[in-house]
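tl;dr need the bound structure. longer version: we got a ligand (S-adenosyl-L-homocysteine) that a collaborator sent over and nobodys looked at where it sits. i said id run it. heres the input, straight from their email, havent touched it
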Amino acid sequence: MSLIGILNCNKKQLIQQFNNINLQKFRVNQVLDWIYDKGYTTFCNMTNFSNELQDLLSKHYYIYRPKIIKTSKSIDGTIKFLLGLNDGNTIETVFIPEINRNTICISSQVGCVVGCKFCNTGYNGFKRNLTVEEIVSQVLIVKDYLNSWNTSSNIITNIVVMGMGEPLFNWNNVSIALENLQIGNSQAISPKHITFSTSGIVPVLKQIINNLDYNLAISLHAPNNDIRSHIMPINKLYPLQDLLEVCKLYNRLNKNKLITFEYLMLDGINDSETHAKQLVKLLHGIKCKVNLIKFNSWEGDNFNGSSMDRIKLFQKLLNNSGIVTTIRCSKGQDIMAACGQLQSQVNIKMLQ
Ligand code: SAH
Ligand code: SF4
């Protein structure tokens, strides 16, 4: 009998499985408490269980962790983790400490199939979806590393699914993982503090936007279809008019929520005054804010980021038209941990 990765299961599935091996429902809560509130990685230290129960659990389940292959620390405190998976693939996860919050940026796939021209992850191609345990354990292993399990509150206050991959192409696993990360008393993360970003996979968005608990960010990056299709080929499949229609539906279904549009400022491509005006028109009638992103360069990229003066002018034009607009300067640039810089070219076997 092969072992089941317990992090792969949500609570409902575990209740069913425990029932099959004659364990009562309250055992599920106890086990989940050890795993998600105390960070245990084996059953044999779970002291409120008899030896028989510990053995039974070990016979059926294991508690997954990837290997930390490398950590890089930025001068701004950001830590990037290169994690090794069982099949030799690697992914990157980033811990971003700030004054009043600590955010973890997690990956949803090994690589990405979407292939946006400005993104290092996309440039390196797609390998596979991450499993639920590979997504959940990115958060748990960072807590192991920071030695932060025995604290009364969670050291990680926010999760952003903005690492490698397109979360909506792996939503089944991402959504179970996010559900599991809300387990626990002191260590649970509220859905209000979870944000996922998508390049705009319209049919999947349509399916999931009804009463979505998480915050939604959309990688827009262009004020019209011509530019967007040029830098984000996915736009040919799901053009702006379809994407914005689904955004309006999201607004209607989630009355108190704003959509964040991410807009990468690329010199000479999407950063002129005309583009700002087009963007204002495009977003008319949508409850949203815009996050202007400074381009983070990587080896082999074909773009130049806009100057700070241009970004500020663009921001002013949007703000003056009533669109709340902020500028995001990504953390961890010196260690290649910023937006769009993550990659997974390293395979564990190459390091051996
Ligand atoms: N695949 C999803 C989730 C990744 S989030 C998505 O694209 O939305 C990563 C964010 O960083 C996205 O908004 C992405 O467009 C942006 N990004 C990609 N490459 C970048 C780069 N070189 N510099 C700055 N931001 C970049
Ligand atoms: Fe994929 Fe997002 Fe990068 Fe585009 S920006 S290639 S969707 S990870």
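gonna send this back to them w/ a short note. The chain has a mean pLDDT of 94.
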